[in-house]
Design goal:
homodimer; mainly alpha; Farnesyl Diphosphate Synthase; 15 helices
């Protein structure tokens, strides 16, 4: 498993360095400078020890990380973000035009990479996930500045924006290992479940901080007009919060003060509890599957680490 | 052939309308409001009358047009363009974030669509072309404001930005018709050749206008810092043009006056002659191929229309 992850890392470095100086210059940092590599890890763990087709597995893992990197580069354009993983973003270094084109190039390379798997099912899994990512982003913009956004709608956004690529990662791993259909489906459901929880906790962390750990101000979502679970839960407990005009929140200080008001309602613990429940439900999807013991344990560990995330 | 084009049109309308309200709201105009449909036409003509696999042909034609639409939506973000084909751009209507996400969604749908062809070769042809598009865009940004940019470099940009998708269109058509390898290659070379000429004439038209026909000011490229064939040729004839500081050109009036100076050197006719020569060379690629007479004639007609374009 570590050998496979190292091979994926080598492939990502080769893609960043080898695809002409352009990709290297603009996206090299984003794709090669690290990050958790959670999606490639899911690909590899979903395949388990049977993994017959090593090149397919490495290509799948590299492809999902390329898609993830593409969305990060484009997100930074949307948010005018200057730092990502501690290094200047493509947007900050090269401007809007270069960042849009670099994201497009990463998307394209992901689809080139996934063809190496040699399966149209794999291409479809990836294109469905990337469509979902873009739809989730569009929904989020549609919902912007609306403090009354419904919980269901929020959860749908989490699924589209985040969970579908987790799902595709597990699917691709299971496909590369030529698992039976029930296993592919079960692993996909597991990935989707922990993906929603991952996004939910991301949104909790944006309110909870601490900034020292996350490297950014609390309340960046609120400044963006993005209403997430903490505010959705908190507006029920503190009706004054439902009446807040998010467009009037324009400074980091105002955002942090709103975060404090949200946290004071006690909803952050409730949101964490919901995420934990989702992770348990996702892990339960693995129970009926005939997985290798080590594989099952490793997947559960990833699920726990998602549930425990604090930054 | 008209029936096939109508089927592609119907497919594009269905994709715009049927993919949830989001794609319809933001990209519907761009993909359904017309345009020349030159790339789908190339797919269909490259397949010729033998076209055995009609669904593959329609999916290929829709996919190349989706990619083209995606790049238009993203280009409008880069250029902050408010009108496209006479209607407000996604960028103007929905802002930067929606436009970036809409372009990403169109890209993703193109790859979903191309899997319907049932051939990894088709996916690869599309992903190679989209990578080239993004690389061309990055090169263009790298060259921005540099009046000394070399002719070779400019031609490479034309190939990447424009010709590779024309090439892929012809390839996809030939593949759907299950043509022999030599035919696929010959048609691909034809597509590439007319694609470069198409871009070259696009750049001539940006200098030549007339605005009444193109619907935009002359010299938009110059305002963007994009140095194209007319200025590259003109700077040899009028050394004062080589010394122009493009960053000082900030108003449409200044840009139009620079266009006049470029046109006065007589290079626009030279550039048109080069494009015409390219189109002839591209058409000559068809000579050794065993095409149907009507197909050969139709492809030559498309080539002529590219050579004759004035707006």
């Amino acid at each position: 498993m570590p050998a496979l992850l190292a091979a994926v890392e080598a492939r990502l470095v080769a893609l960043a360095a080898g695809h002409g100086p352009l990709l290297g210059a603009h996206a090299g940092h984003t794709i090669a400078a690290g990050g958790k590599r959670l999606r490639p890890l899911l690909v590899i763990l979903a395949a388990g020890p049977r993994a017959a087709d090593r090149p397919a597995l490495i290509a799948s893992a590299a492809a999902v990380e390329l898609i993830h990197s593409a969305t990060l580069v484009h997100d930074d354009v949307l948010d005018s973000a200057s730092l990502r993983r501690g290094v200047p973003t493509v947007w900050a270094q090269g401007g809007r035009a270069r960042a849009v084109a670099t994201g497009d190039l990463l998307f394209s390379r992901a689809f080139a990479e996934i063809t190496a798997v040699g399966s149209l099912e794999a291409v479809q899994a990836l294109s469905r996930a990337t469509s979902a990512l873009a739809e989730g982003e569009l929904l989020q913009r549609q919902d912007a500045w609306n403090p009354a956004v419904a919980l269901d709608r929020y959860l749908l956004r989490c699924e589209l924006k985040t969970a579908r690529l987790f799902e595709a990662s597990c699917q691709l791993g299971a496909l590369a290992a030529r698992g039976p259909a029930a296993e592919v489906e079960g692993l996909a459901a597991f990935g989707r479940g922990i993906g929603v929880a991952f996004q939910l906790l991301d949104d909790v962390i944006d309110v909870a901080g601490p900034a020292a750990l996350t490297g950014k101000h609390r309340g960046t979502d609120l400044l963006d007009g993005t209403v997430t679970l903490p505010l959705i839960l908190a507006r029920e407990r503190d009706p004054a919060l439902a009446a807040v005009d998010l467009r009037a929140i324009t400074t980091p200080e105002q955002a942090e003060s709103l975060c404090d008001r949200i946290a004071a309602t006690g909803v952050l613990e409730e949101a964490r509890a919901q995420a934990l429940e989702m992770v348990h439900a996702a892990t339960a999807q693995l129970a009926p599957l005939a997985l290798d013991d080590g594989q099952r344990e490793a997947l559960s560990l990833v699920a726990s680490s998602v549930a425990d995330r604090r930054a």
